Task: structure prediction
Amino acid sequence: MKRVLCVTFFFLLVIASRPVLSISEEMLPETEKVFGKYSDRVVKIQVVEKGSGAKAVIGSGFFVGSEGTIVTNYHVVSKLILHPDRYRAELVEPAGTVRALSVKNVDVINDLALVKAEKSGAPFFAIAAREPQQGTRLYSMGFPQDIGLSIVEGTYNGLMKHALYRKTHFTAPINPGMSGGPTINASGEVVGVNVSSRGQAISFLVPTEAVARLMKLADTAKIDPQNFLEDIRSQILAHQEVFFSDDLIRSGQTIRIGHYRLPGQLSPFFKCWGDSSHQENSPYQSVDHRCSTDDYIYISGEHSSGIMRFSHRSITSDEMNPFRFNHLYSESFKTSGHYMAGNEEEVTKFECKSGAVKRGEIIFKTAFCARGYRKLRGLYDVVFKAAVLSSENSGLETELDISGVSFEKAVSLTKGYLGMMTWEK
Amino acid sequence: MGKIAFVELLDRRGHIRERVKIDSFPATVGRAYANAVIVDDRFVDPEHLRLSVDGEGAIVVEDLNTLNGTRLRKSRQRIDRHRIPAGGEAVIRVGQTVLRLRGDDFAVRPAASSGTLFEPFGRYMENAAIASVVFVIGFGINIFTFAQAIDKKVIWSDLTGMSLVLLIVFALWTGFWSFLNRLVAHSFRFMTHLGISGIASVVLLMLFTAKEYIEFLLSAPLGAQVFGFTGFTVIFSLLLYAHLSVMVESSGRKRLLASTLISAGIVGIVLLTHYSYKKEFSNELRFSSVMKPLGRKWVKTVSPNEFFGDLDKLKARIDAMTQEGPKEKKIKK
Result:
């Protein structure tokens, strides 16, 4: 009997212990497994100011080749590209080893950079051959706020619809410092590169097709590292030919405000908003309509390109005399409704030309202002403002801003924009 | 024929109150009725001065050992004897009275033209009532013009607040000139200066309106600016000239020169500040354009092709700036 009890006890013990062993292996959280398996392929990248030896920028990157090739964001290393004499880039390994980095190639449109460290034999990521299904669980890694390597879980939500630049919508909180880090699937394949976020766990990834293209380009057409600026300039100019084509104006929708027909949503990648103001203590009423491309090309911390914005404002008043109304109208015209960032190292100050342009029966007071890029010569920011001259107590003004385009393209777009405005009964 | 001298009693503004001809020497000046020139001033001795002529025809003024003494106008030093050479003059103070002594050989200035701008104007402005009416009208025009710039529903406190600020500005400006006036001519003449300020403010408003119309009709902000600065220099010079005319008796040419120089200096400083500010890099964009309710049909217009086809100069200016290269600050190592 004692023997039977012993066997039974042993049997029960085995039965009881089996499920426990099975849980600890299969139920191990996926995130933990992914982190444990792939974290050694993610690195911290820091751009250091040479004079002080202090960090100016930190970001993340990941190995994509055994020869020390690393993918990161262009915006992580942009200071080094724009001011190579003032900054250097470094790779910081988990053990704290610091290695020098050099830039191999950049894709400014997709905010990617390929950098290289003198390190061979490091484990590296494979690039996923195709996009995952919407809802797929993904894992993003990086160094948020320089507090150490982190992993966040999120879901893949497909490519952004109507985006000017192709980006993947990823629902997870990607924080500053994780830029350039990989977002991978459970198999450890890279499905995107962390690039930006918009709060509340809305984040964006650079799709892998851009990564693959950049890697291929780096293998075939090597760029003179001293001449990245020329390459960036060419990329922006080539890009504008596609997105800021004359068709944009020709086939763009129009809207009607009062008696005027005006440019509306020019293409699906424009977002438009409207509002009106009827305040009690105001002697005039206004209607505002504004449209903007939803995305931009990052050039430097203070300067972006590839943005097109426009706004219309109609002002009417029954209470003001014509002199007072026109004073209000002039003051409204004087200031720009849109802010254009940029610093003196990168752009010139604005130069303007004013005039009065007659189109049919309408006379527009116009101002065409432009500034040039100092480093990326041949690119300009342009602001065009026009207001309809009116003898009655009503007016309409419009403003168009285009950044990072050739002068000729800007003039052509602005001219087409003005041509879209008509008066209707 | 003997020497003839004139003793002129001046008021605090420097104007002649009484002129006495002396054709017999020696003659005395004092409070007593026995004097050739009677000075009704309790600080003057009954017999205060003696006037005589020396061998060279100069008038000699002697203090008769008086209690309060005799002084040259701009000096605190008592004098016992003062000699006025032939053709000269002396302004002396006895008690609280200012006397000017000249001989008949004193050379007077040629006649001033009666057609000068400020002569009739100045005469009217001497009248405090006219000056105050002029100021009130000017002040009203200013307030009306400023009220046109209010872009919300106008309430009384807007107008009273604006009036208060404007009154302070006028008070400071006029107070400054009155103070100067008191220093050099023993009187404030506040209302005269106030009237001048009122007129000048209206003229400046007219200039500003004209500048805006140039910009509106010709779409030439630079031209309008040149017009504005030139006009301001001229009007400000005239304003200073008017204030100085009330205050001092120097020649018109000297006053005009001083006014123009001061005005040009002020405008020069403003221009330098303006252009150094404009040269500074800024992301802020201020469009130059003025809209007016009148004169729309006289606006100089161009076709879209002309406007957009003529941007080469603009591009060249920008390209020249980019050629200068980035404005990076060199860090010393």
User: Anything to note?
Assistant: The beta strands of chain B are 5-10, 16-22, 27-30, 37-38, 49-53, 59-63, 70-72, 81-84, 89-94, 97-103.
